[in-house]
Design a protein that fits this description.
Chain lengths: ~350, ~350, ~350, ~350
């Protein structure tokens, strides 16, 4: 069985395993205060072209989202998110468990716009009973989105402007940031993101690491006391260096970008094969996730040799299915799948 | 510099690194539903001599404590703990962040007793305003404790009886359970613990793993829906197999017990050296942490070659210092330290 | 200016003021443990035809909703509600502040159905990732609803059955329960409600009292420990008797039903006047709130002499406006308004 | 039976009942935005000698404490309190339910000092693992305290200075503020308190009102958005004017001070009687609560005609008992009690 259902099916890029083995008997202080975390943070700062960002390493996405959001919002505030946003739909109420409502905006292909944010806030304050509803305190977006789409620099600039106009912090979930920025649809750089967002993260779990997300904070108002929040949310790994070591491996020679690009290229190859076969798509994704609409009987045939995600029925005996590539996807697996698509 | 300040200074036992490398390119489902987690759970069930326990794997101690406690308590309940308990003192308010008060009992050498629990509950319900105070809902103990002491079977039986008498769940934090059960002071088995506690965990982070704690639930009332709580608290690792693989390595050939015993033996050797030098101890610890009371000038001399934890002043120019051994401590390092103690 | 914008514009029915004055110098124990609360609870039990319900008195609606919901849900659970439900929209995130997500179902004229609840739960457990989403733990409905509509016995029976099928508790917000049950559209009795719901409340604030809601708990599993929750949520009034005294006045001679019926009759008179003038309605309300669709210029004329609630634009230069009657609305005020409607 | 067990045994001062009756049929907007709340706020501002304070009215003490504390603290912060503080001991975990730890300091006669606060914070930041513990974010004191003692201007100035030194907000629970400031032991004015604290409240429930606490915010950083928090915690009374009307009655002619002084005078008379009989006291209270240490058999005799609070055993067959006077205590009741004390 060749698996395409997600981008976290394997362990880590071999250079990470190698580095973990090499450093295994070093003795270091705990809780992220070791030389590897320091070195990895320096590498990421450099990538951001900004000496003024601060970098922290957390184990996973839910934890990163919860810690950042809970550290920013005041008790009466909520977080604006696309209704397809991971925090709105797929984290077992983790945000609400910290006391905050997720305020949803209808997404279009996974994305929301500066205009939606601006209008929501304007309507909030125009309501004479505004104090009886939750105050929007920040915005959460993901890039790439849950549908594989990516934000352009113009779109992100609009969102950032709407946030600043209404006093909202802007947070980008970058669980798949490598795949987003390596995509032909993106004109953003890490430096742009550091300038336009208050905080974001660079995902490792889905992009070559065993686990780990690098949180980059560019607004100093958020940074003060952030380590208390990491500890409170169970994110302060005793052997914090495990995160530092992995991000060192990913960024000391550009490995992160190299493997991201490779995965996106493979996904685009796959996309082309689906297109040539005449299938439609849930939306046009330029990154490593493809949401293709296929006849149920074709999916049934493919499911004998491949795994993928069944998303939802799409009418007329068709279904939306998600196929992902990742840093670990082999050329051969993609070729095999394309070959079988052509035969359908 | 030779480090004795904690038991989480290095990476993992080499057999774990090896197993991670070997399994690296396997493709498995995520979130703890893979064959490695299944195999590791089966090994642990067997160790517990009980087919009826359920096993889940979390990344770290704060997360394990928070997830278990928040999954058990109702909104008006608190958790009873020694005032030295990790949840009372050293988790940045993680328990309170889930809405629950930590109700403290004065510890003796890190331990609390069944009698203290019984008396607390009796006094609670005897107060005519009991509904104006927090209802005790469960008990948290750690074994070995924050002071290296261990519970005997008689003590744990008493605690368990007090809990059942008053309808409290009993939870044992076993971050250092390997060191506790391998200690000459312990007459407990995993099976005893599974019978006397409702839930406990077997710590990996401090006992040979890169990270990871295996939660063992013997009370089915707690088990139902537990995975929702894991997800909500950010504990559902995308590549959950990383935890399964590590606990397989620790339990398939008895490695966990072997390395625990070795660390305890080294610590007892160290203890003897301190004793022979005439130093006192904060308390008599039979496990891998030693809390010795030394003249400040002696500590200063040792600090040139060794790291350790300075706990608190102990009067007359002396200080309590913590020295830890671990699965990774070398015979040579202990010999060097003993040699330098003798010279003081 | 004659005010029709809400049903909480005045103080209390004069017999309540009188009783407060008469009892003013009695000395009673605090916190709801006094003879007036006891007597009022007995009256309400009798109305419910059920000796097995338990009654508690809280100050207001947000507090009643929050206390009940937080006392029932476990940490991983959410509450299902109409998307127009007060808890979903108008309580400043009070439910989320206790850690729980409000799971919304699209309302029809303010109501939801047993079928919607059943389907939501079925879909939840059919999702292979169900543990990554919030588990539905209870259902919240309001009667009358935020749009003045009322549940029939058949509808409530369906909802109750769906809840029991899926293990959900059923909670009815009865802030306007007097107006609902006195409405020509209702075939429900308090006894039916006590049998079909696990918990509900009888609103006083909007139905004759200065303030106060009587919570009726018919499921004993919810009742145990409920007073802890009242205290925790700031609902345990030191002079709890103030609530008991008011509900005694409302229920010792049937005053509650008498004033409710009177208010509903006045509202229906008003409704008839709007209908005869040819206006449409947002929905057909048989209770004390009328949501009429009127040309903006007509509303402007009325606003010179009357207050009402502007809800939303309804197209073609019209607007939805809410007019409420209450226990305190005078015959004369309604006649004056009808007279002015006819002149429009 | 004559009752001395608390200061909330009766309804309200008759002038309040009268004013409620007189205003009963006024139609006013809800939620604290009515002319009575406005007028009462203006009266209190004037009493504070400060145009820059803001005033809000809440129903009760637990609600006031919870709302203020939850509105101020960030997620990683706790509130420093005396270990006898109401929030530490008697609110069913209300503060923890909002996610925050109550950090306790040992009290002396109910009070804490600026030095204790200063030292706590200094120790917190001196701990190399300070981020693993809860950050102190504010200080809670009560005046008069739970033991009837009162803070002097010098003591409050010290506390205020310690708070400002360490960036903590200072909050005074004034549930019994009338009795505190009317006591011979107090040299504080409302104006002093407004200057030295960031926020405090003037208790109505125990000082002449049916219910109600007037929150006075002198630090504008706390005031912004405060009404959202009131709503979220169920404190926004639909008929908010009920609070405004009561505080108008209490402050338009100095009634609050008059009835407070009278209650304190009666309590001091009682104290003198206890002293002359030779009884000791738990502490020297200059306000309306007296904590006297009496032989158990004497208490038994008194309990036939009087109610009082049994606090704790005091050794040698004696017990600490609390006797309270209030705005409603009659001269005759006190004379009767004194007479019976003399006979013991």
């Amino acid at each position: 069985m060749l698996r395409f259902e997600s981008d976290y099916l394997e362990g880590a890029h071999p250079s990470i395993i190698k580095k973990l083995a090499e450093t295994n008997f070093e003795q270091t202080p705990g809780y992220g205060l070791d030389p590897h975390c320091e070195a990895a943070a320096a590498l990421i700062k450099k990538e951001c072209g900004a000496v003024n960002v601060n970098v922290h390493f957390l184990v996973g996405g839910t934890q990163a989202n919860t810690t950042v959001i809970a550290s920013i919002l005041k008790a009466h505030q909520g977080v604006l998110s696309s209704d397809a946003g991971h925090i709105a739909a797929h984290e077992s109420g983790a945000i609400e468990a910290t006391g905050h409502k997720v305020l949803t905006l209808p997404h279009k292909n996974g994305k929301i716009t500066g205009r939606q944010i601006f209008d929501y806030c304007t309507a909030h304050y125009a309501d004479p009973s505004f104090e009886h509803t939750v105050q929007p305190g920040m915005v959460y977006i993901s890039n790439s989105t849950e549908y594989g789409t990516v934000y352009t620099k113009a779109e992100l600039t609009d969102i950032s402007a709407a946030c600043r106009e209404h006093g909202l912090y802007l947070f980008m979930d970058g669980a798949r940031l490598g795949y987003a920025l390596s995509s032909p649809g993106s004109d953003l750089t890490l430096q742009d993101i550091a300038e336009l967002c208050d905080v974001f993260y660079i995902g490792g779990t889905k992009v070559g690491a065993l686990f780990g997300e690098a949180i980059v904070i560019s607004n100093p108002a958020i940074h003060r006391d952030f380590r208390y929040h990491i500890k409170q949310h169970g994110g302060m790994l005793a052997k914090g260096r495990l995160l530092g070591i992995q991000f060192e491996a990913l960024f000391e020679t550009g490995l992160y970008w190299e493997i991201s690009k490779r995965a996106v290229d493979l996904a685009q190859k796959l996309k082309k094969a689906f297109q040539e076969k005449g299938y439609g798509f849930y939306c046009d994704s330029p990154s490593n996730q493809q949401f293709v609409i296929m006849p149920d009987e074709h999916l049934k045939v493919l499911s004998e040799k491949y795994t993928f995600n069944v998303m939802e029925k799409a009418g007329d005996g068709t279904t939306v299915a998600r196929f992902c590539t990742s840093w670990a996807t082999s050329e051969e697996a993609v070729e095999a799948l394309i070959h079988d698509i052509e035969k359908l």
